[in-house]
Amino acid sequence: MRLTDFTLPLLLVIFTVILLWMMSLYNRLRSFREDLIANWNEIDHQLARKNRLTKELITLGSPVLLFEKNLTSRYIEAQQHYETVFYRIRDLGPLKSPRDFFEKLVHAESELKIASGHFIAALENYPPQPSTQEMHIIETELQAVENRISFVKRSYNDGVTVYNAMQERFPNFFLSSPFGHTLAPLF
Predict the structure, then answer these.
(1) What is the separation of C-alpha 133 from the centre of its chain, rounded to a whole number of angstroms?
(2) What's the whole-model pTM score?
């Protein structure tokens, strides 16, 4: 037996192993990306719900706070800024949005949370109105949405960490970029 008799079968085995490894890597990366997108869609859904509830709270609370125009306008401005950044990320998608968009969203979200706290505190200082019960229901719903957003963000960030780590490992980083995978931003 000559060496060339073993060469062709050996090369076929090596090629098959490499091909199977590439297919496995592609499928794992694809699965992680789909999980990230599913988590992002849940965050998107909850943020849209939060946006809707915030608008309802402004609508119900603004007549009560006629004398607190500055407070109401700051709350509305914070809500509009948040909404602008949120819809910009929503249009691009989580994996195509620049990383600074997520920082802007976190900043806008913290501004909205502060303005919301001042707005709600001012509402609680005024005498009860017919809409007070509805506002309390919305406040409770907002708190539940905030908790859900926090949970889903954590899940999303955990998935991003695993997804990015998988892409950066040797030898995966040679193939992840040609397969169209890029590092995902943390939220």
Answers:
(1) 31
(2) 0.69
Environment class of residue 119 by beta-carbon count within 10 Å: exposed (0-12), middle (13-18) or buried (19+)?
Answer: buried
For the chain, which residues score pLDDT lower than 50? none
Nearest to 60 by CA among 131, 126, 113: 131
CA–CA–CA angle 100, 75, 131 (5° rounding): 135
Query: Counting every residue, how long is the chain?
Result: 187
Determine how many CB atoms are found less than 10 A away from the CB of residue 142: 18
Instruction: With CA atoms as reference, report the closest residue to 95 among 170, 34, 28, 148.
Output: 34
Peptide bond into 171 cis (omega under 30): yes
Amino acid (one-letter) located at 170: F
* Six-digit token string for 112: 């909205």
